[in-house]
């Protein structure tokens, strides 16, 4: 695929870091899958973690927003990771979606044109 290698790497790095950081302390898992589809490349990062209400999902992409936590003063970052990911995906004419997993965690899906 065509694009800025450093920025494309940032997409994967931020999603995997978030999947690890916002996971359950014991028995959790992170799954990373890539696939090629006609005309696009797909990256899916899924994890266990806290339950994410569907109405909160879009807010996770807003700068300085995290799920039910303080906006600053946490060891889990300041809430810029997903807003950066969304910006990079959009700059590459792609799309990103987040879907809550039943029982907790998220499935993050990035689709980028080739």
TrEMBL record:
<keyword id="KW-0472">Membrane</keyword>
<keyword id="KW-0812">Transmembrane</keyword>
<keyword id="KW-0418">Kinase</keyword>
<dbReference type="InterPro" id="IPR003594">
    <property type="entry name" value="HATPase_dom"/>
</dbReference>
<keyword id="KW-1133">Transmembrane helix</keyword>
<dbReference type="InterPro" id="IPR050428">
    <property type="entry name" value="TCS_sensor_his_kinase"/>
</dbReference>
<dbReference type="InterPro" id="IPR005467">
    <property type="entry name" value="His_kinase_dom"/>
</dbReference>
<keyword id="KW-0902">Two-component regulatory system</keyword>
<keyword id="KW-0597">Phosphoprotein</keyword>
<dbReference type="InterPro" id="IPR036890">
    <property type="entry name" value="HATPase_C_sf"/>
</dbReference>
<dbReference type="InterPro" id="IPR004358">
    <property type="entry name" value="Sig_transdc_His_kin-like_C"/>
</dbReference>
<keyword id="KW-0808">Transferase</keyword>
<dbReference type="GO" id="GO:0004673">
    <property type="term" value="F:protein histidine kinase activity"/>
</dbReference>
<dbReference type="Pfam" id="PF02518">
    <property type="entry name" value="HATPase_c"/>
</dbReference>
<feature type="domain" description="Histidine kinase">
    <location>
        <begin position="1"/>
        <end position="114"/>
    </location>
</feature>
<protein>
    <recommendedName>
        <fullName>histidine kinase</fullName>
        <ecNumber>2.7.13.3</ecNumber>
    </recommendedName>
</protein>
């Amino acid at each position: 695929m065509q694009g800025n290698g450093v920025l494309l790497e940032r997409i994967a790095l931020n999603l995997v870091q978030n999947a690890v950081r916002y996971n359950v302390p014991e028995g959790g898992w992170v799954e990373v899958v890539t696939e090629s589809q006609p005309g696009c490349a797909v990256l899916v990062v899924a994890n266990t973690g806290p339950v994410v209400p569907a109405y909160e999902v879009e807010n996770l992409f807003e700068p300085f927003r995290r799920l039910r936590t303080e906006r600053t003063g946490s060891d889990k970052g300041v809430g810029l990771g997903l807003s950066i990911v969304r910006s990079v995906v959009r700059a590459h004419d792609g799309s990103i979606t987040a879907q809550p997993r039943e029982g907790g965690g998220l499935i993050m899906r990035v689709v980028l044109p080739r």
